[in-house]
Write a structure and sequence with these properties.
CATH topology of the domain at 98-287: TIM Barrel
Largest sheet: 6 strands, parallel
Order of helices and strands: HHEHEHHEHHEHEEHEHE
CATH class of the domain at 98-287: Alpha Beta
Low-confidence stretches: 39-46
Number of helices: 10
Shape: rod-shaped
Radius of gyration: 50 Å
Mean pLDDT: 86
């Protein structure tokens, strides 16, 4: 009886030990799993931390400032490149610009000068009129219209008489002064023009003293490098005037075209629209002499 009780107690102890061992093993396995999971998590978190540090570094105040400065530099470079491109375009336009100066001598006249003014107004084109003083005295209202419509007025002597004005330089200068007085009488004492065209042009050695005298008096004289040929005969058909102009045009970058506006040159006004349109088609800009 006593032995049987001892055996039972022994069995209970073995059971307790076994249960304890099982519990210990389970506890060990669970602890190992948690430790493993925590280590893996730490690794992931460490990776996220590195990325976060990198992201914070990229977005730091210093880095943002550097990026902003870089953007400003790039914008400034683009702006300078655009400015250089625009300036180059403007330079090209200046280099390729073609200027034309329509000039009319020997007026004003009662009929042809107003016709020419009407045509210029229609095309919104300005011209330069080299007027004779004695003719200006006859038609002061036409002189006023020339001036009011924005055209330039030049001095073409008072009488246009070659045998007198080219006899001596003093005669020539006196004629210019007389025409100046006429223009001031019409347009006011404040009006002044220093533009001169020599009757027949300033060409040749014989006129060298006259050119010198004119310059010394502060005038600027202009000749021409193109013409319509209306001084080469009487009542020349307009088609011949147009062809004559085209034969002297030669695609020059700066044209000073000689024409006349006396009443005997009525075909000049007839040919003028065709000449203007031809010049416009060839990209000329109309200017006045100064």
């Amino acid at each position: 009886m006593g032995k049987s009780r001892k055996d039972k107690n022994k069995i209970k102890v073995i059971r307790y030990i076994t249960v304890f061992i099982i519990i210990f093993i389970l506890f060990f396995l669970r602890t190992s799993y948690k430790y493993y999971k925590k280590g893996a998590s730490d690794v992931v978190e460490a990776g996220n931390l590195s990325e976060s540090i990198l992201l914070m570094s990229e977005k730091s105040a210093v880095n943002l400032a550097l990026q902003h400065e870089k953007q400003l530099i790039q914008a400034e470079k683009a702006k300078l490149a655009e400015l250089e491109k625009r300036q180059q375009k403007e330079l090209d336009q200046v280099e390729n610009r073609r200027n034309v100066f329509l000039t009319f001598d020997d007026g004003p006249s009662e009929k042809v000068t107003p016709q020419i003014l009407d045509i210029l107004k229609k095309y919104d084109v300005k011209a330069t009129f080299f007027v004779i003083g004695s003719s200006a005295e006859k038609y002061p209202e036409i002189i006023k219209r020339i001036h009011q419509e924005g055209h330039a007025i030049g001095n073409h002597t008072y009488s246009h008489r070659y045998n007198y004005i080219y006899r001596r330089t003093s005669n020539f200068l006196k004629e210019l002064e007389n025409t100046e007085k006429v223009l001031k009488g019409i347009l006011g004492e404040d009006y002044e023009t220093k533009l001169v065209r020599f009757p027949g042009g300033s060409f040749g050695e014989k006129k060298a003293p006259f050119r010198k005298a004119v310059l010394e008096k502060g005038y600027t004289y202009y000749d021409w490098n193109s013409l319509n040929g209306d001084a080469e005969g009487h009542y020349i058909p307009k088609d011949r005037l147009i062809q004559r102009f085209k034969s002297t045009y030669n695609g020059q970058k700066e044209l000073i075209i000689l024409m006349h506006d006396m009443d005997s040159k009525y075909t000049t006004s007839e040919s003028l629209p065709y000449i203007i349109e031809y010049l416009q088609q060839n990209d000329y800009e109309f200017q006045v002499l100064r």
